[in-house]
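Protein modeling request. Please complete all fields; requests missing the sequence field cannot be processed.
Requester role: graduate student
Desired output: 3D structure, C-alpha coordinate encoding
Chains: 1
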Amino acid sequence: MSQASRALAYAFETGMLGAPISNGQRAFFLRAEDPPFGGIDCEQSFRPDFLKLNQATPRIEQGSWPLGLVLLTKHKEENFANIARGWALLADGGTLVCAGANDDGAASLEKHVAKAFGLADSLQKFHCRTFCLIKGDKAPPPYWRGLAGLQPVSDSSWRSTPGIFAWDKIDDGSALLAAHLPDDLLGYVGDFGCGWGYLSREVLARATGIQHIDLIDAEHLALDAAKVNVTDPRASFHWLDLPSEKAPHTYDVIICNPPFHTGRASTPALGQQVIEAASHALRPGGRFYMVANRGLPYEATLKANFASFETLIDNNKFRVSRAIR
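Delivered output (325 residues):
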Protein backbone atom coordinates (compact mmCIF):
# COMPACT_ATOMS: atom_id res chain seq x y z
CA MET A 1 0.00 0.00 0.00
CA SER A 2 1.34 3.43 -0.94
CA GLN A 3 1.68 6.27 1.55
CA ALA A 4 -1.16 8.07 -0.22
CA SER A 5 -3.43 5.05 0.29
CA ARG A 6 -2.48 4.98 3.96
CA ALA A 7 -3.31 8.68 4.25
CA LEU A 8 -6.66 8.15 2.56
CA ALA A 9 -7.53 5.24 4.87
CA TYR A 10 -6.49 7.31 7.89
CA ALA A 11 -8.78 10.14 6.82
CA PHE A 12 -11.78 7.81 6.85
CA GLU A 13 -10.80 5.96 10.03
CA THR A 14 -10.52 9.24 11.94
CA GLY A 15 -13.70 10.76 10.51
CA MET A 16 -12.00 13.56 8.61
CA LEU A 17 -15.26 14.19 6.75
CA GLY A 18 -17.17 14.89 9.94
CA ALA A 19 -18.28 11.32 10.70
CA PRO A 20 -16.80 7.88 10.00
CA ILE A 21 -17.98 6.38 6.71
CA SER A 22 -19.94 3.18 7.20
CA ASN A 23 -18.81 -0.05 5.60
CA GLY A 24 -20.69 -0.51 2.33
CA GLN A 25 -21.06 3.22 1.63
CA ARG A 26 -21.60 3.55 -2.12
CA ALA A 27 -18.52 5.16 -3.67
CA PHE A 28 -16.08 5.02 -6.58
CA PHE A 29 -12.28 5.02 -6.40
CA LEU A 30 -10.10 6.23 -9.31
CA ARG A 31 -6.53 4.84 -9.53
CA ALA A 32 -7.62 2.48 -6.77
CA GLU A 33 -5.34 0.56 -4.47
CA ASP A 34 -6.62 -1.18 -1.32
CA PRO A 35 -10.00 0.53 -0.70
CA PRO A 36 -10.41 2.02 2.81
CA PHE A 37 -13.79 0.31 3.29
CA GLY A 38 -16.04 -2.20 1.52
CA GLY A 39 -18.54 -1.66 -1.25
CA ILE A 40 -16.39 0.63 -3.41
CA ASP A 41 -16.42 0.50 -7.22
CA CYS A 42 -12.71 0.50 -8.05
CA GLU A 43 -11.14 1.78 -11.27
CA GLN A 44 -7.55 0.80 -12.01
CA SER A 45 -6.10 0.93 -15.53
CA PHE A 46 -2.55 -0.21 -14.63
CA ARG A 47 -2.60 -3.98 -14.99
CA PRO A 48 -0.25 -4.97 -12.10
CA ASP A 49 -2.30 -2.89 -9.63
CA PHE A 50 -5.57 -4.08 -11.19
CA LEU A 51 -4.56 -7.71 -10.57
CA LYS A 52 -4.07 -6.98 -6.86
CA LEU A 53 -7.69 -5.89 -6.42
CA ASN A 54 -10.47 -8.36 -5.73
CA GLN A 55 -12.87 -6.57 -8.05
CA ALA A 56 -12.18 -3.62 -10.36
CA THR A 57 -12.72 -2.22 -13.83
CA PRO A 58 -10.20 -0.42 -16.04
CA ARG A 59 -12.65 2.44 -16.65
CA ILE A 60 -15.75 3.82 -14.93
CA GLU A 61 -17.67 5.63 -17.63
CA GLN A 62 -20.73 7.01 -15.86
CA GLY A 63 -22.70 7.08 -12.64
CA SER A 64 -24.05 9.31 -9.89
CA TRP A 65 -22.28 8.55 -6.61
CA PRO A 66 -22.56 10.33 -3.25
CA LEU A 67 -18.84 9.78 -2.62
CA GLY A 68 -15.76 9.53 -4.80
CA LEU A 69 -12.09 8.85 -4.05
CA VAL A 70 -9.11 9.79 -6.22
CA LEU A 71 -5.58 8.54 -5.61
CA LEU A 72 -3.29 11.16 -7.11
CA THR A 73 -0.30 10.26 -9.28
CA LYS A 74 2.93 12.06 -10.14
CA HIS A 75 1.39 13.31 -13.41
CA LYS A 76 -0.23 16.72 -12.93
CA GLU A 77 -2.31 16.56 -16.11
CA GLU A 78 -3.61 13.10 -15.22
CA ASN A 79 -4.66 14.41 -11.79
CA PHE A 80 -6.51 17.33 -13.39
CA ALA A 81 -8.27 14.87 -15.69
CA ASN A 82 -9.19 12.45 -12.88
CA ILE A 83 -10.53 15.20 -10.65
CA ALA A 84 -12.67 16.46 -13.54
CA ARG A 85 -13.89 12.92 -14.19
CA GLY A 86 -14.53 12.37 -10.49
CA TRP A 87 -16.56 15.57 -10.30
CA ALA A 88 -18.67 14.39 -13.28
CA LEU A 89 -19.31 11.02 -11.60
CA LEU A 90 -20.60 12.61 -8.37
CA ALA A 91 -24.22 13.32 -7.59
CA ASP A 92 -25.01 16.96 -6.79
CA GLY A 93 -23.82 17.62 -3.27
CA GLY A 94 -21.51 14.59 -3.36
CA THR A 95 -18.02 14.56 -1.84
CA LEU A 96 -14.76 13.96 -3.70
CA VAL A 97 -11.75 12.98 -1.56
CA CYS A 98 -8.25 13.14 -3.06
CA ALA A 99 -4.96 11.90 -1.60
CA GLY A 100 -1.42 12.16 -2.91
CA ALA A 101 2.22 12.23 -1.86
CA ASN A 102 3.95 15.53 -1.17
CA ASP A 103 6.85 14.36 -3.35
CA ASP A 104 4.41 14.01 -6.26
CA GLY A 105 3.22 17.59 -5.98
CA ALA A 106 0.03 17.03 -3.95
CA ALA A 107 0.40 20.32 -2.06
CA SER A 108 0.53 22.29 -5.30
CA LEU A 109 -2.45 20.38 -6.68
CA GLU A 110 -4.41 21.08 -3.50
CA LYS A 111 -3.94 24.81 -4.16
CA HIS A 112 -5.25 24.40 -7.72
CA VAL A 113 -8.31 22.51 -6.45
CA ALA A 114 -8.95 25.07 -3.71
CA LYS A 115 -8.90 27.84 -6.30
CA ALA A 116 -11.19 25.96 -8.71
CA PHE A 117 -13.76 24.62 -6.22
CA GLY A 118 -12.96 25.59 -2.66
CA LEU A 119 -12.11 22.86 -0.13
CA ALA A 120 -14.39 21.28 2.44
CA ASP A 121 -11.52 19.83 4.49
CA SER A 122 -7.80 19.01 4.36
CA LEU A 123 -5.35 16.78 6.25
CA GLN A 124 -1.57 16.24 6.29
CA LYS A 125 -0.37 12.76 7.23
CA PHE A 126 2.30 10.25 6.13
CA HIS A 127 4.05 12.92 3.99
CA CYS A 128 0.83 13.19 1.99
CA ARG A 129 -2.05 15.59 1.50
CA THR A 130 -5.66 14.48 1.71
CA PHE A 131 -8.34 16.99 0.80
CA CYS A 132 -12.00 16.97 -0.19
CA LEU A 133 -14.49 19.11 -2.07
CA ILE A 134 -18.25 19.17 -2.32
CA LYS A 135 -19.91 19.16 -5.75
CA GLY A 136 -21.75 22.44 -6.05
CA ASP A 137 -22.17 25.09 -8.70
CA LYS A 138 -18.46 25.38 -9.61
CA ALA A 139 -17.42 23.12 -12.49
CA PRO A 140 -13.85 22.01 -13.27
CA PRO A 141 -11.88 24.35 -15.55
CA PRO A 142 -12.37 23.52 -19.25
CA TYR A 143 -8.69 22.57 -19.54
CA TRP A 144 -9.12 19.90 -16.88
CA ARG A 145 -12.24 18.48 -18.54
CA GLY A 146 -10.49 18.40 -21.92
CA LEU A 147 -7.61 16.34 -20.51
CA ALA A 148 -10.04 13.55 -19.63
CA GLY A 149 -10.23 12.60 -23.34
CA LEU A 150 -7.73 11.86 -26.11
CA GLN A 151 -5.53 14.80 -27.11
CA PRO A 152 -3.71 15.55 -30.41
CA VAL A 153 0.04 14.91 -30.29
CA SER A 154 2.93 15.90 -32.57
CA ASP A 155 1.58 16.51 -36.09
CA SER A 156 -2.00 15.97 -34.79
CA SER A 157 -2.32 12.65 -36.61
CA TRP A 158 -1.69 10.97 -33.24
CA ARG A 159 -3.86 10.87 -30.13
CA SER A 160 -2.78 10.34 -26.54
CA THR A 161 -3.93 11.04 -22.99
CA PRO A 162 -2.32 11.89 -19.63
CA GLY A 163 -1.20 8.93 -17.56
CA ILE A 164 0.85 7.35 -20.37
CA PHE A 165 4.65 7.52 -20.69
CA ALA A 166 5.60 10.49 -22.92
CA TRP A 167 1.91 11.13 -23.47
CA ASP A 168 2.31 14.55 -25.12
CA LYS A 169 5.21 13.92 -27.52
CA ILE A 170 6.99 11.31 -29.58
CA ASP A 171 9.62 9.89 -27.25
CA ASP A 172 13.17 10.46 -28.54
CA GLY A 173 14.15 6.86 -27.81
CA SER A 174 11.18 5.43 -29.70
CA ALA A 175 11.90 7.73 -32.65
CA LEU A 176 15.52 6.50 -32.71
CA LEU A 177 14.41 2.86 -32.65
CA ALA A 178 11.87 3.46 -35.42
CA ALA A 179 14.59 5.00 -37.60
CA HIS A 180 16.75 1.88 -37.25
CA LEU A 181 14.14 -0.83 -37.73
CA PRO A 182 14.63 -2.65 -41.06
CA ASP A 183 11.95 -2.90 -43.73
CA ASP A 184 12.30 -6.68 -44.04
CA LEU A 185 10.39 -7.63 -40.89
CA LEU A 186 8.16 -10.65 -41.54
CA GLY A 187 5.51 -12.80 -39.92
CA TYR A 188 4.22 -12.26 -36.40
CA VAL A 189 5.47 -9.19 -34.53
CA GLY A 190 5.03 -8.15 -30.91
CA ASP A 191 5.25 -4.56 -29.67
CA PHE A 192 6.08 -5.01 -25.97
CA GLY A 193 5.14 -1.92 -23.98
CA CYS A 194 3.46 -0.36 -27.01
CA GLY A 195 2.40 2.91 -25.34
CA TRP A 196 0.09 4.88 -27.61
CA GLY A 197 1.15 2.93 -30.68
CA TYR A 198 3.91 4.99 -32.28
CA LEU A 199 6.33 2.15 -33.03
CA SER A 200 3.64 -0.21 -34.33
CA ARG A 201 2.22 2.31 -36.77
CA GLU A 202 5.69 3.21 -38.03
CA VAL A 203 6.73 -0.39 -38.63
CA LEU A 204 3.42 -1.37 -40.23
CA ALA A 205 3.79 1.48 -42.71
CA ARG A 206 7.18 0.19 -43.88
CA ALA A 207 7.29 -3.59 -43.45
CA THR A 208 4.75 -5.09 -45.86
CA GLY A 209 5.78 -8.63 -44.87
CA ILE A 210 4.23 -8.36 -41.42
CA GLN A 211 1.25 -10.72 -41.16
CA HIS A 212 0.13 -9.68 -37.68
CA ILE A 213 1.24 -7.40 -34.84
CA ASP A 214 0.24 -7.59 -31.18
CA LEU A 215 0.34 -4.30 -29.30
CA ILE A 216 0.81 -5.13 -25.61
CA ASP A 217 0.83 -2.75 -22.68
CA ALA A 218 0.13 -2.85 -18.95
CA GLU A 219 -1.61 0.54 -19.06
CA HIS A 220 -5.16 0.39 -20.38
CA LEU A 221 -5.08 4.13 -21.14
CA ALA A 222 -2.23 3.46 -23.58
CA LEU A 223 -4.23 0.81 -25.42
CA ASP A 224 -7.25 3.11 -25.66
CA ALA A 225 -5.04 5.61 -27.50
CA ALA A 226 -3.23 2.94 -29.54
CA LYS A 227 -6.54 1.65 -30.92
CA VAL A 228 -7.21 5.10 -32.34
CA ASN A 229 -3.68 5.55 -33.69
CA VAL A 230 -3.21 2.09 -35.22
CA THR A 231 -6.11 1.12 -37.45
CA ASP A 232 -4.27 -1.40 -39.65
CA PRO A 233 -6.29 -4.66 -39.71
CA ARG A 234 -3.11 -6.62 -38.99
CA ALA A 235 -3.03 -5.16 -35.45
CA SER A 236 -4.57 -6.51 -32.24
CA PHE A 237 -4.39 -5.11 -28.71
CA HIS A 238 -3.71 -6.83 -25.40
CA TRP A 239 -3.84 -5.52 -21.82
CA LEU A 240 -1.18 -7.62 -20.10
CA ASP A 241 1.51 -7.39 -17.45
CA LEU A 242 4.29 -9.07 -19.41
CA PRO A 243 6.49 -9.97 -16.41
CA SER A 244 3.63 -12.02 -14.92
CA GLU A 245 1.32 -12.89 -17.84
CA LYS A 246 2.13 -14.86 -20.99
CA ALA A 247 2.21 -13.12 -24.36
CA PRO A 248 -0.58 -14.23 -26.72
CA HIS A 249 1.70 -15.59 -29.49
CA THR A 250 5.18 -16.79 -30.36
CA TYR A 251 6.82 -14.11 -32.50
CA ASP A 252 9.27 -13.76 -35.35
CA VAL A 253 10.13 -10.22 -34.24
CA ILE A 254 9.62 -8.20 -31.06
CA ILE A 255 10.13 -4.45 -30.83
CA CYS A 256 10.40 -2.79 -27.45
CA ASN A 257 11.04 0.42 -25.56
CA PRO A 258 10.97 -1.29 -22.14
CA PRO A 259 9.41 0.44 -19.15
CA PHE A 260 11.62 1.04 -16.15
CA HIS A 261 9.51 3.20 -13.84
CA THR A 262 7.17 2.12 -11.06
CA GLY A 263 5.63 5.03 -9.20
CA ARG A 264 8.32 7.65 -8.61
CA ALA A 265 11.26 5.25 -8.59
CA SER A 266 13.39 4.04 -11.48
CA THR A 267 13.41 0.26 -11.39
CA PRO A 268 15.60 -1.27 -14.12
CA ALA A 269 14.42 -4.69 -12.91
CA LEU A 270 11.07 -4.02 -14.61
CA GLY A 271 12.80 -3.52 -17.97
CA GLN A 272 14.89 -6.63 -17.36
CA GLN A 273 11.73 -8.65 -16.75
CA VAL A 274 10.22 -7.42 -20.02
CA ILE A 275 13.41 -8.39 -21.88
CA GLU A 276 13.20 -11.87 -20.34
CA ALA A 277 9.53 -12.11 -21.35
CA ALA A 278 10.52 -11.18 -24.91
CA SER A 279 13.12 -13.95 -25.06
CA HIS A 280 10.49 -16.51 -23.99
CA ALA A 281 8.00 -15.23 -26.58
CA LEU A 282 10.37 -15.37 -29.59
CA ARG A 283 10.79 -18.38 -31.81
CA PRO A 284 14.38 -19.71 -32.18
CA GLY A 285 16.22 -17.35 -34.50
CA GLY A 286 13.69 -14.59 -33.87
CA ARG A 287 14.83 -10.97 -33.67
CA PHE A 288 14.46 -8.55 -30.76
CA TYR A 289 14.89 -4.81 -31.33
CA MET A 290 15.13 -2.62 -28.26
CA VAL A 291 15.90 0.98 -27.33
CA ALA A 292 16.83 2.03 -23.80
CA ASN A 293 18.62 4.77 -21.91
CA ARG A 294 22.26 3.85 -22.36
CA GLY A 295 22.95 3.95 -18.62
CA LEU A 296 20.52 1.14 -17.81
CA PRO A 297 22.15 -2.26 -17.04
CA TYR A 298 20.51 -4.35 -19.76
CA GLU A 299 23.53 -5.89 -21.52
CA ALA A 300 23.87 -8.70 -18.97
CA THR A 301 20.16 -9.52 -19.38
CA LEU A 302 20.49 -9.61 -23.17
CA LYS A 303 23.57 -11.83 -22.92
CA ALA A 304 21.82 -14.24 -20.55
CA ASN A 305 18.64 -14.58 -22.63
CA PHE A 306 19.75 -14.42 -26.28
CA ALA A 307 22.18 -16.28 -28.50
CA SER A 308 23.76 -13.01 -29.61
CA PHE A 309 23.21 -9.27 -29.53
CA GLU A 310 24.75 -6.15 -30.99
CA THR A 311 24.44 -2.38 -30.72
CA LEU A 312 22.96 -0.76 -33.83
CA ILE A 313 23.45 2.82 -32.67
CA ASP A 314 24.51 4.66 -29.52
CA ASN A 315 23.98 8.42 -29.46
CA ASN A 316 25.25 8.90 -25.88
CA LYS A 317 21.66 9.12 -24.59
CA PHE A 318 19.96 6.04 -26.03
CA ARG A 319 21.23 2.70 -27.28
CA VAL A 320 19.43 0.62 -29.90
CA SER A 321 20.18 -3.11 -29.71
CA ARG A 322 19.34 -6.12 -31.84
CA ALA A 323 19.34 -9.55 -30.26
CA ILE A 324 18.82 -13.00 -31.80
CA ARG A 325 17.03 -15.75 -29.87
